[in-house]
Write a structure and sequence with these properties.
The chain is 19% helix and 34% strand. It has 2 helices and 7 strands. The N and C termini lie far apart (69 Å).
């Protein structure tokens, strides 16, 4: 005895298979980023010294978009942002989308303690 699958079910199955997500691969990818090593605090930075060294990373492009998408939801910006801009923050990672500039995420580390710190003042 053969089973009969209705055309709608076949179409649905074919659609699901056609839109299947590619499997995830452990594959390092290039990213667009800048960094700064400094002493003090970002709002009052000075040259780094022994026991007073921090690093801030500024990630842009596709990596920043992936981070932005993962953080959610949007938050109200306390720093003001252009029309159409969006802000997302989680712990010490801040991500922004600006129509004129694209995606950017900021984060940092205290290099003496290894603890996570913010990467932007605002």
């Amino acid at each position: 005895m053969t089973r009969y699958l209705p055309p709608l079910l076949l179409t649905l199955a074919a659609t699901i298979l056609a839109h299947a997500v590619e499997p995830w691969n452990w594959m390092p990818r290039l990213l667009t980023a800048k960094y700064i090593i400094y002493g003090g605090d970002l709002g009052d930075a000075h040259a780094p010294g022994k026991g007073d060294m921090r690093i801030a990373f500024y990630v842009r492009g596709s990596a920043a978009k992936e981070m932005f998408d993962a953080i959610g939801p949007d938050r109200k910006s306390e720093c003001g942002i252009e029309k159409g801009g969006r802000v997302r923050e989680k712990e010490r990672v801040a991500c922004r989308y600006r129509p004129s500039d694209g995606y950017q995420c900021d984060f940092g580390f205290d290099l003496g303690s290894g603890k996570s710190i913010g990467g932007s003042v605002c």
